Amino acid sequence: MFVRIAVFDPLPVYRHGVMAVLREAGLGTEAPDDVFAWMDDDHLRLVVLSLQAGDDWERLGRLCRTHAGVLVVALLPDDAVTTHVRALAYGAVAALPRDAQPSAVRAAVEAVIGGRTVLPIDVLRSLIAPGVLTPQEAVAPSPRELEWLRHLSTGATVADVADRAGYSERMMFRLLRDLYQRMRTRNRTEALLLARERGWL
């Protein structure tokens, strides 16, 4: 099976390093400036995608939504179980920390090409645990809650939002915490990223 492989990372040195590792394994790679323009649905595509900033997570979600057959190996900013689970929930088929050894990157890509994935045991256990929440299960905020998120996205503090909404700061923290839970996110940053990705903001 022929698979075209792209490596997408903002740092040229890192990107070319990953490409060299894969070339040593006999895998041809490309480094497109625009991964969406590089995609097509006529050929199997595999993307090695670094996730560092919010835009990277949005790119992952959009890529997997618009190209259902794409295989994404996510290079994560850390090795936390929750970060692995989030990448898989957004559509990646494999994930490993960005500072992984070259042999681990090669093994992950080769496994995916072979129709398998390699996951840390803790990540697997987390995925099969009862009550694992994914972005697809997120509840859309109400219009009032969207207004709070809009204010937060402009850099407003919780105190600012509370003042505008007519609540105490303590009550606002409680309301926002409940909102983040319903959105299946852990904090303000994740909630804003998800809201932008879903087109709610």
From TrEMBL:
Q: Which residues form a coiled coil?
A: none
Keyword vocabulary terms for this entry = DNA-binding
InterPro entries referenced in this protein's UniProt entry, alphabetically:
CheY-like_superfamily (IPR011006), Sig_transdc_resp-reg_C-effctor (IPR016032), Sig_transdc_resp-reg_receiver (IPR001789), Tscrpt_reg_LuxR_C (IPR000792), WalR-like (IPR039420)
Residue ranges constituting the Response regulatory domain according to the UniProt record: 4-113
Q: Does the keyword Magnesium apply?
A: no
Give the transmembrane region(s).
Answer: none
* Protein name per UniProt: Response regulator transcription factor
Q: Which organism is it from?
A: Nonomuraea typhae
